[in-house]
Amino acid sequence: MRIRIPKRPKLVLSSFAGLTALGAIGAALVGPALPITGKGTFCLARSTGTGLTGIEGASTSGGCATLSDKGTLSTDLTTGEIPFQGGLRLYTPQHRLDVRNLVFHIDSRTATADLSVDDARPAHVTFLTYSINPGHVTVAYPSVKATSVSLHLAGSAGPSFLRAFPASPVGIHDKLLVFNGTAAFTKVQ
């Protein structure tokens, strides 16, 4: 008499980012969001029709703005929130759009912000959307690096953006910015 042993189900990872993170740091470190500290550089995508500068303590160099950040991120890149200090200003000679309180929401792959056109009352909206793949984000605990991540104008940011820049070739869901960032996981107290 033979006894049949059922085959074990195979574990399937739903994202390449998860696979990359597991390979880089080991399964023991995958889990809840951990504190991180770093900085991110935002550069305009080609042909936006606007300029870009940093405001409120953000530095500007070569048409890009760099903001510091302090938030949380899971090592498998599935959860966390990363608020940025300082802000961005997109501008033309006629108008400007100030971006303050910028926060990346890792689980939804969105960034929220307060948008103000020409000093009008700010609107808190989903400003950007993005995706994460292993070609652009790597984790080598205790650091994480993002390279050339495309940030797209979200639908709810469209009214503010188009009011400020009606002649811009950038439309809703088009690439607006490119993000590069580095951060370090800090020890949990």
Detailed description of the structure:
The chain is built from two helices and twelve strands; from the N terminus they run H-E-E-E-E-E-E-E-E-E-E-E-H-E. With 189 residues, the chain is mainly β. Strands 1, 2, 3, 4, 5, 6, 7, 8, 9, 10, 11 and 12 form a twelve-stranded antiparallel β-sheet that branches. The termini are far apart.
List keywords for this structure.
single chain, 189 residues, mainly beta, globular
In short:
This protein has 2 helices and 12 strands, in the order H-E-E-E-E-E-E-E-E-E-E-E-H-E. It has 189 residues and is mainly β.
Q: Helicity level, as a percent range?
A: under 10%
Shape: globular
Rg computed from alpha carbons, rounded to a whole number of angstroms: 19 Å
Structural class: mainly beta
Q: How would a textbook summarize the main sheet? A: 12 strands, antiparallel
> Uncertain segments of ≥5 residues (pLDDT<50)?
1-29
Overall pLDDT metric: 85
- What fraction of the residues are assigned to beta strands by DSSP? over 45%
What is the N-to-C order of secondary-structure elements (H for helix, E for strand)? HEEEEEEEEEEEHE
Based on DSSP secondary structure assignment, what is the total number of beta strands?
12
Q: What oligomeric state is this?
A: single chain
Distance between termini?
58 Å
Number of helices: 2
